[in-house]
């Protein structure tokens, strides 16, 4: 029987992944944990514990007590937040991963750990960035993601650990708030459109970045973890892509629903981070090896985001 632990379950990805896994595997078989208090969206849906992922003994005790077979390690400091405290970003992102990988070897677990487009850098080809390419990240967050990919590959090769990973693009969701990432404007813009009819973007109007609606990201994650191990050829994280757009393009999509919506641009410290990342991603390897295929384009995502956020915000 699958027994799943999600560490970082109260974050933007964690909330929706926890709910999706509980719907598939049963509430009692998916244990949520976070250093924060339980997210209201998770309350009453299944077991939850306060857990500091840096506490190796507490994590090991929880895994053994609950007879965990699979860990999704989502706890991390994101790009913009990581630049404010690079030391903490390294210690949390890499320290937690190394401890969970060691635990995976000890307890014979299956591990999921997310990488990101932040693992790429300004020397990476920016159009249709390939699966295997130059990776010279310039943010501490990106450095931890590239180092983490190498660490996962090492544990897979050295200890035959079943560890799997994708490079998430920017993720967009209406259910939970973003957590300090450079692509967060693409969520904030919907809140601004509904609440005030305007938004000031911290990225310039023609800054193109790879993006994905959260439902696609959750489905891809679960699909990868359910794929037979013999089909998983890559030791590094898989490129994952759906759509690519700029602040100007998403504003135009919103204006089709809210014609009076106004956007302005005031690039800040997020801009050089975004400028070091790809504009679009080639994820043909994931599509070929385990059948990945996205469902949401910009128009469909905009429809769903506005519809659900209006209900959430009672607008």
Automatic annotation (TrEMBL):
Pfam families: Epimerase. Belongs to the NAD(P)-dependent epimerase/dehydratase family. GO terms for biological process: L-threonine catabolic process. Residues 4-239 form the NAD-dependent epimerase/dehydratase domain. It comes from the Bacteria. It comes from Candidatus Nomurabacteria bacterium GW2011_GWF2_43_24. PANTHER family: L-THREONINE 3-DEHYDROGENASE, L-THREONINE 3-DEHYDROGENASE, MITOCHONDRIAL. GO terms for molecular function: L-threonine 3-dehydrogenase activity. This is L-threonine 3-dehydrogenase. InterPro entries: Epimerase_deHydtase, NAD(P)-bd_dom_sf, NAD(P)_epim/dehydratase.
């Amino acid at each position: 029987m699958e027994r799943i632990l999600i560490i970082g379950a109260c974050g933007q990805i964690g909330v929706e992944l926890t709910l999706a896994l509980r719907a598939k595997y049963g509430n009692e078989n998916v244990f949520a944990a976070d250093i924060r208090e339980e997210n209201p969206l998770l309350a009453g849906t299944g077991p939850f514990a306060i857990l500091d992922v840096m506490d190796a003994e507490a994590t090991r005790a929880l895994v053994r007590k609950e007879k965990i077979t699979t860990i999704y390690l989502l706890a991390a400091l994101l790009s913009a937040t990581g630049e404010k405290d690079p030391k903490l970003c390294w210690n949390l992102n890499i320290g937690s991963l190394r401890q969970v990988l060691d635990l995976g070897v000890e307890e014979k677990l299956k591990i999921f750990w997310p990488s990101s487009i932040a693992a790429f850098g300004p020397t990476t080809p920016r159009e249709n960035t390939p699966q295997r390419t130059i990776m010279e990240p310039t943010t501490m967050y990106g450095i931890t993601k590239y180092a983490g990919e190498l660490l996962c590959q090492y544990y897979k090769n050295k200890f035959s650990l079943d560890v799997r990973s994708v490079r998430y693009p920017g993720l967009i969701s209406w259910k939970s708030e973003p957590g300090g990432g450079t692509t967060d404007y693409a969520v904030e813009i919907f809140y601004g459109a509904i609440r005030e009819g305007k938004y000031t973007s911290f990225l310039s109007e023609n800054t193109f970045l790879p993006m994905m609606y959260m439902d696609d990201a959750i489905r891809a994650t679960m699909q990868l973890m359910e794929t037979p191990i013999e089909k998983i050829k890559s030791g590094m994280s898989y490129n994952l892509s759906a759509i690519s757009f700029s602040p100007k393009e998403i504003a135009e999509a919103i204006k089709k629903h809210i014609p009076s919506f106004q956007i302005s641009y005031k690039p800040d410290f997020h801009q050089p981070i975004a400028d070091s990342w790809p504009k679009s991603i080639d994820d043909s390897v994931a599509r070929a090896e385990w059948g990945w295929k996205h469902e949401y384009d910009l128009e469909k995502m905009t429809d769903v985001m506005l519809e659900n956020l209006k209900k959430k915000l009672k607008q």
